[in-house]
Design a protein that fits this description.
The chain is of the alpha/beta class and about 500 residues long. It has 2 domains: about 25-195, no CATH class; about 205-490, Rossmann fold (3-Layer(aba) Sandwich). Helix content is about 35%, strand content about 20%. The chain contains 16 helices and 14 strands. It has helices spanning about 1-20, 50-60, 100-120, 125-140, 145-155, 160-165, 165-180, 190-195, 255-265, 280-290, 310-320, 355-360, 375-380, 400, 420-440, 445-455, and strands at about 80, 85, 205-210, 215-220, 230-235, 240-245, 275-280, 295-300, 325-330, 365-375, 390, 405-410, 455-465, 480-490. Strand 8, helix 11 and strand 9 (about 325-330) form a beta-alpha-beta unit. Helix 4 runs antiparallel to helix 7 and helix 9 (about 255-265) runs parallel beside helix 15.
Length: about 500
């Protein structure tokens, strides 16, 4: 019987406590521990309704307070409610000795505030803690007993939509918006670290490619480990820096890049260079250069570009080039690639940035386009003539003709196994190395003119071909149309 009575009494007390806890606390205010009254500013940045907004809507306008130099509210201010002044000390101080419910609520409120003060040792923890606890109680509808668990969780784990749920998280946001005026500028970071969980940032892994000390490098972001480490190799210890981006692999030397690199090493006259070879595009070469020294770029491959359209990347690449002191030796495409006589083999020659450079007076000053040719006179038993001096390059619908003064046809010896623009480019680079060695103070623009001065101007026959889909299928040899043009070109002779 006594047990039933005990349970009945406990139930009655619980009902009384719940009734007290769920009461309207829109006008809950800081406790008497404060010597001065404060004002909570309405936030205009949060869509949620804050406690201060509720007070304003229910009781009338709230006078705007001023701030001291550290961002805290002026202690001389008070809140004007219902036409009269009301001190911001807690209404719980008016609890009578017999009102145990009110006293219990006041004690539980103080527990929340004290916990927050201990967790947040701010310049003025008391003011912020009282505002935060009172406003959060209003926003959530929790009594101070239930609120304690939420406050403790927030200070231990931070507040986010994931760990609190969207509704409680919005309550915390609204509370912070209402109470942020009571946090000095020096404490903002501290509050955000404890109460607000910052958004997780995707971790970026960086892999160095190149040589930082030499000023020739870039960082590969978020490398896919399945592809292995990016290829990067440095050859030589000479003062002149040559950058070569191409198709390379650590697994084999039978790549386009290795063959082109070997051509450079074959035709180099001495060891006054350092060659930085890496697996990548010409655009990346521009980004790799972090030195004011004159650098030579040998670009036989232009990976990653779309030969059918110009993109924003092409323009960005050219801007990167202009920020360097580099001579850009840009290989043109070889003849015989499927194409169209109206546009050339591709609308854009091998690298889309070539069309951007063509129309950029600053970029063209440090660029030379590279084609190739051979003189068949000796092998044909004839004297050298226009007919024997033959170049093979994609004309790109007039690109080569428009840029003859910025194009070099590099003569490749008959006894060399590789004859195309890819191998003509590193040969031109070896010439540039020698000229820079002789003129160490030459800029990229000056080096271009020095290289052009080594050429001879002669008439040659330039051959190209294209595929005409009207004639036949792509497997039909008769659908491939050959044509040629005679032009006066800059020839870099074999040596």
């Amino acid at each position: 019987m006594s047990k039933s009575l005990t349970l009945l009494c406990a139930s009655v007390c619980s009902l009384i406590f719940i009734a007290c806890s769920s009461g309207n606390i829109d006008t809950a205010e800081p406790s008497q521990e404060l010597d001065t009254p404060v004002e909570i500013e309405t936030s205009t940045e949060d869509s949620s309704v804050s406690a201060s907004e509720s007070a304003e809507n229910d009781a009338g306008d709230i006078d705007t307070s001023t701030k001291s130099d550290d961002g805290l509210a002026n202690a001389s201010e008070s809140i004007e409610i219902d036409g009269g002044e009301k001190d911001t000390s807690s209404s719980f101080s008016n609890c009578s000795e017999d009102d145990w419910e009110c006293s219990l609520e006041a004690e539980q409120r103080a527990d929340n505030i004290n916990h927050l003060i201990e967790t947040l040792p701010l310049i003025d923890s008391q003011i912020f803690a009282e505002c935060f606890v009172d406003t959060l109680a209003t926003e959530t509808g929790f009594g101070f007993y239930d609120l304690y668990a939420l406050v403790a969780f927030i200070t231990d784990n931070g507040a986010s939509a994931d760990n609190l749920g969207q509704q409680d998280y919005q309550s915390v946001e609204a509370t912070l918006a209402a109470c942020d005026r009571f946090v000095s500028s020096n404490d903002i970071q501290r509050v955000s670290e404890i109460i607000v969980v910052p958004e997780a940032k995707e971790e970026v892994s960086l892999v160095l490619v190149g040589d930082v000390e030499a000023g020739i490098y870039y960082y590969y972001e978020n490398l896919d480990t399945e592809w292995g480490e990016p290829y990067s190799e440095t050859t030589g210890r000479g003062p002149i820096k040559v950058v070569m981006g191409d198709v390379f692999s650590y697994e084999t030397t039978e790549t386009h890049g290795h063959r082109v690199k070997d051509t450079f090493l074959t035709f180099a006259q001495n060891e006054n260079f350092t060659l930085f070879a890496y697996d990548g595009s010409s655009g990346t070469s521009f980004e790799m250069i972090h030195t004011d020294e004159t650098v030579i770029i040998s670009a036989s491959a232009h990976l990653g570009m779309n030969p059918l359209e110009l993109t924003s990347d092409d323009y960005a690449e050219v801007e990167s080039l202009k920020e360097t002191n580099a001579l850009y030796l840009s290989s043109l495409e070889n003849a015989g690639i499927d194409g169209d006589p109206e546009y050339g083999v591709y609308p854009y020659p091998h690298a889309g940035n070539a069309y951007v450079i063509e129309n950029d007076p600053d970029a063209i000053k440090q660029t030379l386009f590279i084609a190739w040719y051979r003189d068949f006179a000796e092998s044909w038993g004839r004297e050298s003539s226009v007919d024997t001096r033959i170049g093979h390059v994609d004309l790109h619908g007039g690109f080569v003709q428009r840029n003859l003064e910025n194009t070099i046809f590099v003569q490749i010896p008959f006894d060399y196994d590789f004859a195309d623009t890819s191998h003509a480019t590193p040969i031109a680079a070896t010439w540039a190395v020698e000229l820079l060695a002789q003129n160490p103070n030459a800029s990229a623009e000056e080096l271009k003119q020095l290289l052009l001065a080594e050429t001879i101007s002669v008439d040659i026959t330039v051959n190209d071909s294209y595929y005409d889909e009207v004639v036949g299928d792509i497997t039909d040899d008769s659908a491939y149309i050959s044509y040629s043009e005679i032009m006066t070109a800059n020839i870099l002779p074999a040596r």
